[in-house]
Structure formats: C-alpha cells, structure tokens
C-alpha cells in the first residue's frame, strides 16, 4: 500500500509522511517483522484494548470500522481464506434454487448476503455463520446487518431474525454493491436513481459534451464512456416494464438534445432530432 501512495499524500495524525515508508524499505521490513511476531501463535490483536504501533489514516481511528489502520500484511487473502472456510459449513442448508443449484449466500469481499425462502432457514444460516465466524475471531456487526423480505404482497411480512438475542433491523430497501434493492423486487427506484446519476454526470461534464468545436460523433463516444456506463451499471438485473422503457428512451433523447444544443424552444420532435 505504501508503494501505491500518491506523490504527495497527506500525512496521518502522527504527522508521519508516507514517503518515509515508501523510500525507506528498511522501516517497512522492521514494522512488518514486529507485527508478524506479535500475531504469530496468538489470537488476533484486539486493537480497541491493545497498545502498540498502529498507523491510522484518520484521526483517532483506532477502532477498526470504516477507517482501518494501514495493513502491513496481506489481510485480504487471509480474510478470504477464513470466509471460504466459514461458508462451506452452510453449503447444505436450503437457500434459493436457481437452475437446480442451491444458493444461500452471495459474497464480494466482506459484503455478504444470506438467502433463504423462509424465516427459520434464514435464522439457521445466521446462527451457523455467527458460530463459525467467532471460532475464527470474526464477529458480525449487528449495526450494519439488515434483513429484507422480497415479496409481491401488498403488505410485506415482518420477520424476527436475532443475533445474540438482539433483533436485526428489517428494511424496505438497501444498497448492495452500488445497486439499489427494494422489498417489492421491482427496479423502478433503481432505474430512476441511475437516470439522476447519469444526468448529474452529464451536467458536470457539460462544457465538454456540449462544445460546438467537438463533433457529435466524438461527444457521443464520450457520453457512452462516462455517462451511459454509470446509467447501465448492473442493468442486467433490472426488471423492465413499458413505463421504465419510456423513461430510458426519454433519457436518451435528453442526452442527444443537449449534445446537439437543441433548445426546447425550437419545438423539434424526437424523430427530427434523431435524423439530424
């Protein structure tokens, strides 16, 4: 991580510049040796109570939450080994059947979703994952853990999933890997959100994308690269209907009209815009 640091990154709260670690490999080797020695044949260090050498990126960030100390070890590989072991223990527990395959969890790094068709199976999944995780020194953060019931019913059923006797909050929507998921299983809110993000990106680049000295073909390619890529993120998961298709077509025309600098006062129809 030190080698990948920017040319002039801001120093941490201890005023230790990154260049010290970048240009003095002996310091890194020394710190690496100390931490390896501290972590060998003992439990994972509890940073909340331990005292030692830690290098936070944010002020007073001793608590390992969103702001983690800079790691001198390859914790990502170690974490993946642990999670792979943990989730192998739930392979046979029923989840959702897709193409004849049982799927009870989705994982990307430390973002995990557990899937089940009923409350009892979900509670069983949570209990086993919690138990196996704690054996490895990993703990589920209940503040960041949510439940959701995806249903077509008008009144969404409430479930009571608990961790250590504390009920996990049930939500109507949440973001997973940048994708907005709602309890009705529809894509309306996600498509509308993506339209807003695409328009916002176009507006921030409007000086370039509406420049008369740049050909329309070039502006179209730039828009496809920087605007459409944002809008179409995870579009493979969308469930479209006639209304959403019209919204997408309206976004397309909105972009064309602005790239071509066509004012609404000109009263040009979409067909005329496309023919130009």
UniProtKB/TrEMBL annotation:
The keyword Transferase applies. The keyword Nucleotidyltransferase applies. The lineage of its organism: Eukaryota, Metazoa, Spiralia, Lophotrochozoa, Mollusca. It comes from the Eukaryota. One of its GO terms (molecular function) is RNA-directed DNA polymerase activity. Keywords: Nucleotidyltransferase, RNA-directed DNA polymerase, Transferase. It comes from Elysia marginata. This is RNA-directed DNA polymerase from mobile element jockey. Residues 77-181 form the Reverse transcriptase domain.
């Amino acid at each position: 991580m030190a080698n990948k640091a920017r040319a002039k990154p801001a120093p941490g709260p201890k005023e230790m510049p990154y260049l010290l670690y970048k240009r003095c490999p002996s310091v890194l080797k020394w710190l690496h040796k100390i931490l390896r020695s501290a972590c060998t044949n003992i439990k994972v260090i509890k940073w909340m109570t331990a005292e030692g050498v830690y290098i936070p990126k944010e002020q007073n960030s001793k608590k390992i939450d969103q702001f983690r100390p800079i790691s001198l070890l390859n914790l990502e590989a170690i974490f993946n080994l642990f999670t792979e072991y943990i989730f192998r223990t739930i392979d046979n527990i029923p989840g959702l059947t897709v193409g004849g395959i049982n799927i009870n969890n989705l994982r990307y790094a430390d973002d995990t979703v557990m899937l089940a068709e009923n409350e009892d199976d979900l509670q069983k999944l949570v209990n086993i994952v919690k138990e196996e995780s704690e054996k490895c020194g990993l703990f589920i953060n209940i503040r960041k853990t949510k439940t959701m019931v995806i249903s077509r019913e008008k009144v969404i059923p409430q479930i009571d999933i608990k961790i250590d006797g504390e009920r996990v909050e049930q939500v109507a929507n949440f973001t997973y890997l940048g994708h907005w998921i709602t309890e009705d299983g529809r894509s309306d809110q996600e498509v509308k959100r993506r339209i807003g993000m695409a328009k916002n990106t176009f507006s921030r680049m409007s000086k370039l994308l509406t420049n008369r000295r740049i050909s329309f073909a070039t502006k179209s390619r730039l828009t496809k690269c920087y605007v459409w890529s944002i809008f179409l993120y995870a579009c493979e998961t969308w469930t479209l209907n006639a209304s959403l298709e019209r919204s997408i077509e309206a976004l397309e025309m909105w972009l064309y009209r602005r790239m071509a600098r066509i004012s609404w006062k000109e009263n040009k129809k979409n067909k005329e815009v496309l023919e130009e």
